[in-house]
Amino acid sequence: MKWNRPLFSLFILLLAACGTQTPTATPVAPTAAAVIPAATNTAAATNIATATNTTLAVTATAVPATNTPVPEPATATAIPTTGSSSADVEKETATPLPELTATGQATTAPTVTTAPTGTTAVPPTTDPNATASSTAAAPPPAGDVPVPTDNNYPAYDDRVGWENRINVPPGFAVTYVGRVIGNPTSITFGPDGLLYIAMQAGNILTMDGNGNVNTYATGFNTPTGLAFRPGTNTLYVSDRVVNENVGGEAQVSIVNRGQLIGGLPCCYTFFHSANGIAFGPDGYGYVGVGARADHGEILDGSGRQDELHPLEASILRFNPDTGAVSVYARGFRNPYDIAWDANGQLWATDNTPDYDPPERLHRVVPGGLHGYPYYDCDVCFSPPEGVTVIPPLVTFAPSSSPTGIEVYLADQFPGYYNSMFVALWSSFVGAQKIMHIRAGGSAPVNFATGLAAPIDVVTGPDGSLYVADWATGIIFKISYTG
After folding, report:
1. Collapsing DSSP states into helix, strand and coil, what is residue 4?
2. Using CA atoms, how far apart are residues 136 and 325, in angstroms rounded to an integer?
3. Cα(461)–Cα(293) distance, integer angstroms
4. Taking Cα atoms as reference points, which of 429, 423, 366, 364 lies closest to residue 398?
5. Are 165 and 50 in contact (CB under 8 A)?
């Protein structure tokens, strides 16, 4: 995320300065008793030793013992047409990263609970636990919004006002589904058809098609990644363990079982941590991990280049049973979300450094280096001789903060199969919207504008797109009506 210029007032505490941490709110205990007992943990924490090399080879990860077989993709993974060819991509030749096996004791499993239905939301403030009138209107953004041009937001419970405000292409319609209290960070649908919502304050909620909300799990620290393992009801969550911009730690956990992977680098600034999770066609889990600095510098004001943690600024591949991890690709300053397309190609959104180059969407090349810490600026670092940096395939407006990405694999939207939707979260000019990219990559075009701070987008079981708005807590549905 970018924090070098002021945003609209609800972001003030979060955006005080680049690298400033937002205090994590203490999760509120649900009022209902737990209905699913915490299972005995079988996945131990992974201890990750600090390494001094800055380039690491991708290593093999053992096949998950209980993974459901997944067919191979229809076509082989492609190399970006606008980047280096497969012959040009430099594979790291330094000491290989050893496979990390599970050792040590797992953390306490988050509790799964149920809360009363019909939970309503309040407007976000600098305190995620603060309350306010449900009819209060959202504060206006600092910059202009291309469509619509007004800066007046409807009240949070004004369904018709929001549905009329959001612009979508002809043939599509917007439905206000419901609201949650506080700030959602990511969403996914479960095998039960419910929408699962990770909340910045630490809870995971569910919402049904009527907008009714229940608490599913509590006890997380700024969870930002959610994914169900295909063919199961097992939910994987990424969040923080130590919430510090120097010496922080993140993890991947399984709800009701506890920590699966620990020791992940964290937390340069707000939302820079272990983030989006996605399961690949090979049955492995994948998770994006942010960098520990803006452009690879040591955070002491000296301007010197840091030695990379072996797992920072990367997309990791992990065994969903044992937690063993390896580096799949590297060079991502903050890969907030990742998604697989129908051809077995992985895509990642990425927030660029604070000198404000265009934001990025990467076609991920296994073993490739996609940027970080090598950027073109007065205080940035140049890549070493023989190291090839793979450019992004798609770019967005500077400071637009691309967050959630969804590859559309349903059939409700005619002509949209295998295309991508990306949420632009910030309030800078060119953001506050969902953009569409055609299958395989193309110049992004507006798809849904007029939102406040869309942070994630996902396809529902009905083939509609669902959008979570961080600023308002509103969940929107976008459907094709013809």
Report:
1. coil
2. 46
3. 38
4. 429
5. no
Q: Which residue has the tokens 């600095």?
A: 293
Residue that the structure tokens 């599970």 belong to = 102
pLDDT in tens, 396-449: 999 999 999 999 999 999 999 999 999 999 999 999 999 999 999 999 999 999
Question: Which 8-state DSSP code applies to residue 304?
Answer: P
Q: DSSP code of 469?
A: E
- Exposure of 235 by Cβ count < 10 A (0-12 exposed, 13-18 middle, 19+ buried)? buried
**Dihedrals φ, ψ of 398, to 5°?**
-55, 140
What are the strands of the beta sheet with 394-396, ordered from one edge? 338-340, 346-350, 359-363, 394-396
pLDDT at 80 over 50: no
- Enter the tokens of residue 226: 């959610």
In the chain, the amino acid numbered 83 is G
pLDDT tens-place string over residues 316-331:
999 999 999 999 999 9
How far are the Cα atoms of 374, 404, 460 from residue 357, in angstroms, in the given order?
13, 19, 33
- Report the predicted TM-score, pTM, of the whole model to 2 decimal places: 0.75
Residue pair 322/62 in contact by the 8 Å Cβ criterion? yes
Q: Is 269 helix (H, G, I), strand (E, B) or coil?
A: coil
The residue ranges of DSSP E strands in 123-212, in sequence order, are 172-179, 184-189, 195-199, 204-207
**Distance set, CA 82 to CA 170, 346, 350, 362, 418 (Å):** 32, 16, 17, 11, 19
**Which pair of tokens denotes residue 63?**
């096949």
d(CA 227, CA 61): 20
Tell me the domain boundaries of the chain: 1-482
Strands 213-218 and 465-469: unpaired
CA nearest neighbour of 267 among 251, 243, 287: 243
Cis peptide before 266 (omega within 30 of 0): no
CATH pick for 1-482 out of 2.120.10.30, 1.20.1580.10, 1.25.40.390, 2.40.30.60: 2.120.10.30
CA–CA gap between residue 437 and residue 111 (Å, rounded): 38
